[in-house]
Amino acid sequence: MVKTFAGARLRRLREEHGVSQIELARRLGISPSYLNQLEHDTRPLTVPVLIRITEVFGVDTAYFAPHDTPRLVAELREALPARATLPDLTELASRLPEVAEAVIDLYRRYRQTNDQLAEVVGDRELVPGRSPHDQVSDFFYRRQNYVPDLDEAAEALAVEIRIRRGEARAALTDRLADRHGVRVVRQDTDALAGELHRYQPQSRTLHLSTSLRSGQEAIRMGAQIALLEYADVIDEIIEEERIYDVQTQILLRVGLANYFAAALILPYREFLDTAEAMRYDIELLTNHFVMGWESVCHRLSTLQRPRARGVPFSFVRVDRAGNMSKRQSATGFPFSRSGGTCPLWNVYEAFSAPGRVMTQVAAMPDGQRYLWIARTVTRHHGGYGQPGKVFAIGLGCELRHAGRLVYSAGRDLQATGAATPIGPGCKTCERLTCPQRAAAPIGRRLDLDENRSTFIPYPLKTETP
Fold first, then answer.
1. DSSP code of 85?
2. H or E segment at 398?
3. 443 vs 364, residue with greater confidence
4. For the chain, which domains are there?
5. Which stretches does DSSP call E strand in 338-433?
6. What contacts 450, CB < 8 A, 6 or more positions away?
7. Which of 311, 293, 285, 323 lies closest to 408 in space, CA to CA?
8. Could you tell me which residue ranges the HTH cro/C1-type domain spans (predicted)?
9. Which of 90, 230, 251, 414 makes the best surface tag, with the fewest CB within 10 Å?
10. Which is higher by pLDDT, 199 or 43?
11. Burial zone of 123 (CB within 10 Å; 0-12 exposed, 13-18 middle, 19+ buried)
12. Is residue 293 pLDDT above 50, yes or no?
């Protein structure tokens, strides 16, 4: 049985609630010295103590699971190439996650400073810093893609204005008009100069493109309600993040407004109960709630309310070139930050069969296995001859949750040899003999010889201790 050491998380949880060691020990029915040992990882958490902790603080047992370790290790490898061994990085990420986060944050700040210097001196070869999009993705990643204040407010508002599945637009139109005096106008895309929506505060008019589907219209209206009605809540969240870059603030504000909109149209408890009853069949959920595939998948990745958790999913959106335009996760799936993702991932296979649901049991280098579901979605904003957009949407969960999904039917989830070996990205992947590798791993020297060739594209020198 694997022992659980989570001292740093226990200490952080206690400090966040303003509880002393003596007081918490009394509530848990253990001695202060035992609690001190737990917080310093000299004793593992036992199941009875773990259950009492979850009852005292109202958190799920998954809070103490080391599910973030793969993500931290992948990021530490980028921050500390060739400076530490994989076992050392794994121990740092699992035993001292706060220290690992601090190291990663320092590296991010270094990259950001380098980027600013590149702007000044015109040197584009310097390491780029984090973009506003990356910072927003990091925000949702750190929170496991769940924002309780907005989620709970949206669910309460859904009850107040009587949101009904498939009929959200009418209720949202009435709310905008009655509460805010906002008029909704649908216009041809050309009249909006290619924009999908535009809000004019002066005339209190929300213009929506006729190319938007009903679910997309509802999301735009729900987001506008968030910006008008819950601006204080959103601004407080942004202030807590200490984000001072204006572009990042705007992107995060939009992201939080869209999060609220999805939570309003697909209220938490109703959506979770339906998803469980339908075994997370995305096709059935899209038909039931009259929403698009991407919107449903994104909402599924946010169901992490304490004491009412859904399957913890990772959500990703990529294009044919491998660009990842969205990545959010309620799990510790280690998305690559150094460019490129694994070509063996079924998210890319989805482009070969548009509209078809692809499933894959994937194994990461650390042995963690995931069930991934992927399908393409297509968007058009005009008529014949107008360019459209094609994305692949991926939704993945750890294999231990796969039995709750309809997509596990007929699969032998225990057959380790049947899992496809994938990695976070070629530059940080530990699969050194992978023939699909597109880049050498960070910090490793190549074993090059003009007198021989190898099947492996990037042969590496054998490291001697």
1. -
2. strand 388-398
3. 364
4. 7-64 (1.10.260.40), 69-118 (no CATH), 131-265 (1.10.10)
5. 358-363, 369-380, 388-398, 420-421
6. none
7. 311
8. 10-64
9. 414
10. 199
11. exposed
12. yes
The rounded distance, in Å, linking the Cα atoms of 256 and 235 is 10
Task: Say whether pLDDT at 265 is over 60.
Answer: yes
How high is the pLDDT of residue 253?
Answer: 95
CB distance 257 to 153 below 8 Å: no
For residue 288, count other CB atoms closer than 10 A to its CB: 17
Report the DSSP beta bridge partners of residue 313.
397
Q: What is the mean pLDDT of residues 32-60?
A: 84
Give me the DSSP letters along 16-44. Answer: HTT--HHHHHHHHTS-HHHHHHHHTTSSP
Count of alpha carbons within 13 angstroms of residue 336, beta-carbon side: 24
Specify the pLDDT at position 127: 41
The Cα–Cα gap between 282 and 373 comes to 10
pLDDT score recorded for residue 122: 46
- Closest to 321 in 3D by CA, of 351, 354, 361: 351
**Is pLDDT at 170 greater than 80 in this prediction?**
yes
Q: State the residue for tokens 């069969």.
A: 353
Is residue 121 predicted with pLDDT exceeding 60?
no
